[in-house]
Amino acid sequence: MKANSLRELLVEELKDLYDAEHQLIKALPKMAEAASSEDLRAAIEEHLEKTEQQAERLKQVFSQLDESPKAQKCKGMEGLIKEGTDIIKEDDMDPEVKDAAIISAAQRVEHYEIAGYGCVRTWANLLGENEVASLLEQTLEEEKGADQTLTQIAEEINVEAGAGEVKGEEAEEEEETPATARRGRTSSRRKPAA
Ligand SMILES: [Fe+2]
Predict the structure, then answer these.
(1) Cα of 31 to ligand 1 centre, how many Å?
(2) Which of 7, 40, 144, 165 is most deeply buried (CB count within 10 A of its CB)?
């Protein structure tokens, strides 16, 4: 990346984000398909629609800056997507654990985009490009919203994924019910039905 001014840096980073959004448009359907949770699948599909709009919005941004929309290979997104697809390929994974891993991969993507859009929005503001700044702000808010949705979904899925594995749980239970412990109990912890 070569830039000698903040404006050039802004344009370079926008090309990077433009490529990142297009990589995601290709990757998100595969992630949605690999998800077991209906909520997770729906959230990813909804974000795919948003991502398509965000790529369009970047076209508006380029035109506002009198630049033609160009993509520049975003290696960061490439790496994040590669990690996500490695998870998807695992076919002997517990579905809840796999969903937890998909959420983790998706949240890394969102945080990466939040950082990218936050920077370009701030630079556009500094350069007096108010229209551009407000378009980028809109996308930034959408990315933050997607991240929050994923956190909400994760709250349930993570618990399901970790059912029966919580360290110290057994010791506590024994303390509370010594009689049961003496009788030699069978495992009382079962995975909740999905
Ligand atoms: Fe995006």
Answers:
(1) 15
(2) 40
The pTM for the full model equals: 0.84
Topology at the third CATH level for domain 6-162: Ferritin (1.20.1260)
Q: Ligand 1: distance of its center to the CA of 72 in Å? A: 15
Question: Residues lining ligand 1 (ion), CB within 5 A?
Answer: 51, 54, 113
CA distance 31 to 23: 13
The candidate with the shortest Cα–Cα distance to 146, out of 118, 109, 117, is 109
Rounded to 5 degrees, what are φ and ψ at 32?
-60, -45
How much distance in Å is there from the Cα of 58 to the middle of ligand 1?
Answer: 10
Cα(96) to ligand 1 centroid in Å equals 25
Residue-wise pLDDT tens digits, 83-133: 999 998 988 899 999 999 999 999 999 999 999 999 999 999 999 999 999
